[in-house]
Amino acid sequence: QAQVSESGGGLVQAGGSLRLSCTASGLTFNQYTMAWFRQGPGKEQEFVASHVHKDGSTYYADSVKGRFTISRDIAKNTVYLQMNNLKLEDTAVYYCDAISDYDTCWGQGTQVTVSS
Questions:
Q1: What is the mean pLDDT of the chain?
Q2: Burial category of 98 from C-beta neighbours within 10 Å (exposed 0-12, middle 13-18, buried 19 and up)
Q3: Could you read off the pLDDT of 81-95 as tens digits, one per residue?
Q4: Pairing state of beta strands 18-25 and 46-51?
Q5: Residue pLDDT, tens place only, 46-78
Q6: Secondary structure of the chain in the HEC alphabet?
Q7: pLDDT category, 102, cuts 50, 70, 90?
């Protein structure tokens, strides 16, 4: 059964950094686009970043461009989200999503809290 599992969230001060990890199992990792979404308190879920499996293209929400970097380690079936210069508004539950032409698989999420 396909699964993705996030880790690496936590409490960090504004301006600090965190690296989130999302490890996939039960699926052919290099056939899935991997994406990060987040949902802040009282907000709707929003797209953060994605890494396209077909050509390695990456995409970012305007709000995180220049601060966040998505990368993929095929050998470890893992995608990372390096988050630098974190801001209060980055506080959210971050979700990993594995997307293929046929299905999608969501993780349970990991909490990121940015304090002042």
A1: 96
A2: buried
A3: 999 999 999 999 999
A4: unpaired
A5: 999 999 999 999 999 999 999 999 999 999 999
A6: CCEEEEECCEEEECCCCEEEEEEEECCCHHHCEEEEEEECCCCCCEEEEEECCCCCCEEECCCCCCCEEEEEEHHHCEEEEEECCCCHHHCEEEEEEEECCCCEEECCCEEEEEEC
A7: confident
Residue showing tokens 């299905």:
103
Token pair, residue 78, equals 């893992």
CB atoms within 10 A of CB 77: 20
Rounded to whole angstroms, how far apart are CA atoms 34 and 42? 25
Q: What's the CA gap between 35 and 81, in Å, rounded?
A: 9
